[in-house]
Amino acid sequence: MDKKNNSRRNFISKSALAAFAALAGTKIVFGENFPSELEPIGLDELETPEGIPGKSDALTILNNKPWNAETPPHLLDPEITPANLMFVRNNGIPPTEYDLEKWTLTIEGEAAQQKKTYTLKKLYDNFAHYTYDLTLECGGNGRGEFNPPAKGNQWGLGGVACTRWTGVRLKDVLNDVGLKSTAAYIGYYGADTHLSGDSSKVVISRGVPIQKAMEDESLIAWAMNGEAIPKMNGYPLRLVMGGWPASVSGKWLTKIVIRDKEHDGPKMGGQSYRIPKYPVPPGTKVPDEDMKIIESMPVKSIITYPKTGAIIGKGQSFEVRGHAWAGDLKVKAVMVSIDFGVTWQKCELNPPKNRLAWQRWKTRITLPEFGYYELWARAIDENGKGQPMVLPGWNPKGYLNNACHRLAVKQA
Ligand SMILES: Nc1nc2c(c(=O)[nH]1)N[C@H]1C(S)=C(S)[C@@H](COP(=O)(O)O)O[C@H]1N2
Ligand SMILES: [Mo]
Questions:
Q1: How many Cα atoms occupy the beta-carbon half-sphere of 115 within 13 Å?
Q2: What angle (nearest 5°) sits at the alpha carbon of residue 157, between those of residues 75 and 336?
Q3: Is residue 79 part of a domain?
Q4: Are 245 and 294 in contact (CB under 8 A)?
Q5: Which residue from 1, 202, 270, 304 has the highest number of Cβ atoms inside 10 Å of its Cβ?
């Protein structure tokens, strides 16, 4: 064996070492001893031994730069998702300093009658407080199932939550500033910073038509589940607009612009949070001008009990339950099948706690004999639209997968 080659094979090259050191942001002590067959583990895990700050270890981490994590479906069982279990979808880096006395929200824009700046205290003292349970679902929830796969976080089922938000109505604040008759859209800005470290770059600035902004349930919130909003979910102030892709609910809120046209901040245009205007075969490249903005989310349900893999005793009847939601609409019915969709059993369905909150459904099931089963759940909205059994229409960025949730159980 050639000795020179051998030594090169066995130890990490100087340039690879330098690259790794740069990545790790520190010197690699004993780096010259590092066998080239091995890949450096990297510090990602070491940097955050506790996982995402303020969040349960039970979340499934999809990305750590920036943090993106989802909730396993069985942990979404409570009516209200616990704060440490609510999913996290960051596009950039959350702010690290929070001075509550100095935090302000500015409202301005070409369709605003004036520019006004509010401290947190002023918002709290000058406007009526409201509390609503609101469902937030990432537009990309379920993306992982699309084929060909779409780029981005490969969300499973858990990019959704229903939590209890408290704050002031966005419309009360907008009216305090005054809307011009040309007001058509709002857009938000937050205090998070761009991954590139370039402080002049805006991470994300999305918005909604003025009609959605003026709804009773559209909140500027400072509390979630009766406590301060978790840092990762937008502390100390965020927009909450249930029923629409959660990307319109700006976190770490510092500014709202009132626009006389569709808002054009980063991630409003191009292919972001947009789907084709017409159905396309999987894998199609769709030109930007043929894409439309996602508004109300489609009907969907999850099974939160039992958990996949549950073993059911012979002849034992058990409860199957979960939640269902349908964007701006109500859910009209939920059905469950244990025979791969041949027959369906109608479930009990609660009304939403308030508009735009998810709805609890449940039923009892008895499995006829021992063996493997799948529980399938299917919700139908008040307009009669139901969840697809397999996958909904493919789209380039993998949004709006509202296929039926399936889980497996076994009768022992
Ligand atoms: N400022 C800011 N707001 C944001 C985001 C962000 O990265 N920065 N992400 C958006 C997206 S894409 C989603 S799905 C929701 C996620 O909210 P959560 O992290 O509280 O679950 O916040 C939205 N608001
Ligand atoms: Mo999202």
A1: 7
A2: 85
A3: no
A4: yes
A5: 304
Ligand nearest to the CA of 206: 1
**Joined tokens for residue 371:** 């063996």
Q: Which of 193, 237, 249, 294 to mutate to test the pocket of ligand 1 (most atoms within 8 A of CB)?
A: 249
**Residue 402: how many other CB atoms lie within 10 Å:** 23
pLDDT tens by residue, the chain, 412 residues: 344 444 444 566 666 667 666 666 667 777 777 777 676 666 554 444 568 999 999 999 999 999 999 999 999 999 999 999 999 999 999 999 999 999 999 999 999 999 999 999 999 999 999 999 999 999 999 999 999 999 999 999 999 999 999 999 999 999 999 999 999 999 999 999 999 999 999 999 999 999 999 999 999 999 999 999 999 999 999 999 999 999 999 999 999 999 999 999 999 999 999 999 999 999 999 999 999 999 999 999 999 999 999 999 988 899 999 999 999 999 999 999 999 999 999 999 999 999 999 999 999 999 999 899 999 999 999 999 999 998 999 999 999 999 999 999 998 8
Q: What is the pTM of this model?
A: 0.89
Which range marks the domain in which residue 372 is found?
A: 2-46+297-411
Residues 109, 147 within the same domain: yes
Residues 194 and 326 in one domain: no
* CATH assignment of the domain containing 335: 2.60.40.650
* 274 and 303 within one domain: no
**261 and 115 housed in the same domain:** yes
Q: Which of 277, 293, 309 is the last residue of a domain?
A: 293
Cβ–Cβ under 8 Å, residues 243 and 328: yes
Tokens 């090169």 -> residue: 8
List, in sequence order, the alpha helices (H) in 83-133. 120-126
Last residue of one domain, picked from the residues 266, 293, 320:
293
Residues contacting ligand 1 via CB (< 6 Å):
86-92, 136, 138, 190, 192, 203-204, 233-234, 246-247, 249-252
Identify whether residues 141 and 279 lie together within a single domain: yes
